[in-house]
């Protein structure tokens, strides 16, 4: 999983080295976010609590967080997306209560997400690059195209 470091407020770059990818639940789960930073931290905390409650079961924790996000008045106002993964699955969790398992196990969220996903799909289909290399190159391409994506990268890989 890889994330850029740019935090924007409107058309202004507020921070260029944010860490949008984190390890959760005893370092067994990777989680990344796009959207409002404060909202994302709230969701990270809630998601980690769901992981603890469900002994690290990614699917169950993702579905339970999505249910809460959809039904809780305070959470419904949060504007962020989460990308989460463990050794067996990956999901995008949205504020609409959706838990989406992506095609080809490619997840791309945020302003540069469409660019990164297009690049990753092409690299996956046409090269022998590792998942880490594809993530890095795709994020670099997105940063070249999208003004809300920069080249400061956090990359993390689950070893299993």
From TrEMBL:
The keyword Lipid biosynthesis does not apply. It holds the Pfam family Proteasome. GO terms for molecular function: metal ion binding; threonine-type endopeptidase activity. It catalyses: ATP-dependent cleavage of peptide bonds with broad specificity. GO terms for cellular component: HslUV protease complex; proteasome core complex. Its EC number is 3.4.25.2. Keywords: Allosteric enzyme, Cytoplasm, Hydrolase, Metal-binding, Protease, Sodium, Threonine protease. Signal peptide: none annotated. InterPro entries: ATP-dep_Prtase_HsIV_su, Ntn_hydrolases_N, Proteasome_sua/b, Proteasome_suB-type. GO terms for biological process: proteolysis involved in protein catabolic process. It is an enzyme of class 3 (hydrolase). SUPFAM superfamilies: N-terminal nucleophile aminohydrolases (Ntn hydrolases) (SSF56235). It is found in: Cytoplasm. The keyword Metal-binding applies. It comes from the Bacteria. Belongs to the peptidase T1B family. HslV subfamily. A double ring-shaped homohexamer of HslV is capped on each side by a ring-shaped HslU homohexamer. The assembly of the HslU/HslV complex is dependent on binding of ATP. This is ATP-dependent protease subunit HslV.
